[in-house]
Amino acid sequence: MDHKTTAGLSQACYGFAIEGTYKDCVPYGNGHINDTYLLTYQQDDTDVPYILQHMNKTIFTDPEALMENIIGVTSFLKKKIAAAGGNPRRETLDFVFTSNGNPYFIDGFGEYWRAYHYIDQVYALDQVKKTEDFYQSALSFGRFQQMLADFPADTLHETIPNFHNTAVRFGAFEKAVAEDVCHRVASVREEIQFVKTRFDVACALCDLQSQGRLPLRVTHNDTKSNNVLIDEATGKGLCVIDLDTVMPGLSVNDFGDSIRFGASTAAEDETDLSKVSCSMELYEAYVRGFLEGCDGRLTDDEIAALPLGAKVMTYECGMRFLTDYLSGDTYFKIHRPEHNLDRARTQFKLVADMESKWSQMQAIVQNYIHK
Fold first, then answer.
1. Residue 278 carries which DSSP code?
2. Of 28, 73, 81, 78, which is closest to residue 50 (Cα–Cα)?
3. How far apart are CA 351 and CA 346, in angstroms?
4. Which of 46, 84, 86, 263 could form a disulfide with 282 if both were Cys (CB 3.0 to 4.6 A apart)?
5. Do 104 and 150 belong together in one domain?
6. C-alpha to C-alpha distance for 90 and 190, rounded to whole angstroms
7. Apex CA 363: angle with CA 358 and CA 364, to 5°?
8. Are 177 and 256 found together in one domain?
9. What domain range is 67 assigned to?
10. Please, are residues 235 and 136 in contact by the beta-carbon 8 Å criterion?
11. Do residues 214 and 205 lie in contact, with contact meaning Cβ atoms separated by under 8 Å?
């Protein structure tokens, strides 16, 4: 950690209106984008934990707009949760404000930090091992859709423009191939061809939206199963986390991102592609849980497009990993030289597997469309 980051962290530890005495701050978690710490304050002889995050301004260029989105959505969710007899402190993120009333702290170097209450006695799913866990993840993200169905999506900032506009992502991919700044194109021609021959996939959801068949909704846009906290005591989905990419979007994108991450039989960066496939057992469990959580708030067109959402999001994510690899690994954090390439290859293997199971994926959704 360089001097600037160390000094900024030291300032941020005291930057929020937290009662008690500062005790400790240590690195926490394994997120790709932001730097996360477990911050502890002593309050009445009790250690109280908080999550402290350094917000990545390279990715999120307008952190104030981002936090306006998050506070708007979490405040709305708190009211819904309380009205349903739930616990707003545990069932959505509860942010700590500064003494000036801001949900972020700006250190002496112009870097942005935020803090929220730590939720204890929970676990997250880095890889789905039980069907019931994946069902609970689906139920949680479905409820997220259901609770926010009457939130005016068009009032949210688009903090990353065209985030899930796959056609625009395709253009960025083509640019990375043409520029070849790291001289990597020659070694990944097979992967490049895989992307190029599926341009119709890149346009599919945008076309449906432009036809008015897919409505604009508040979407999470990063619905990996590890962004749901599961209650240790009950095994039930408790809280949706990592709200940086909450923006206006399509419900089928949220569904699809969950499938490409959680229904895979292997880790996102698995190097042995023979282990990678889309589990139809997990896929069906997610369809069931997501639609149950949505509780009738999706249209028939949205439900019918769920398999397409899974394929498009898997294709898009693989394309993004490959684009980042070609561009010099500037977006996603990597832990080995070809990490992003490995990630891209797993996504492309999943797309191919989905294509081989397409009729089955559609049939599963049709079984639930009027339930």
1. B
2. 28
3. 9
4. 263
5. no
6. 46
7. 100
8. yes
9. 3-120
10. yes
11. yes
DSSP conformation letters of 51-65: EEEE--TTT-S-HHH
Burial of 341 (0-12, 13-18, 19+ CB in 10 A): buried
The string of pLDDT tens digits covering residues 306-354 is 999 999 999 999 999 999 999 999 988 899 999 999 999 999 999 999 9
Task: In whole angstroms, give the CA distance from residue 37 to residue 146.
Answer: 31
Ramachandran region, residue 212 (left: φ > 0; alpha: ψ -120 to 50; beta: rest):
left
- CATH of residue 214's domain is 3.90.1200.10
What is the three-class DSSP state of 151?
Answer: coil
How far, in Å, CA of 241 to CA of 282, rounded? 21
Q: Give the integer Cα–Cα distance in Å for 316 and 203.
A: 11
β-strand pairing of 217-219 with 105-106: unpaired
Q: Which of 352, 367, 370, 351 is nearest to 309 (CA)?
A: 351
Burial class of residue 2 in the structure, from the number of CB atoms within 10 Å of its CB (0-12 exposed, 13-18 middle, 19+ buried): exposed
Token pair for residue 1? Answer: 């950690």
pTM above 0.85, yes or no: yes
Which residue blocks in the chain are alpha helix, DSSP H?
A: 3-12, 63-83, 88-91, 131-147, 166-179, 189-196, 199-210, 251-262, 280-294, 300-304, 306-327, 339-356, 358-368
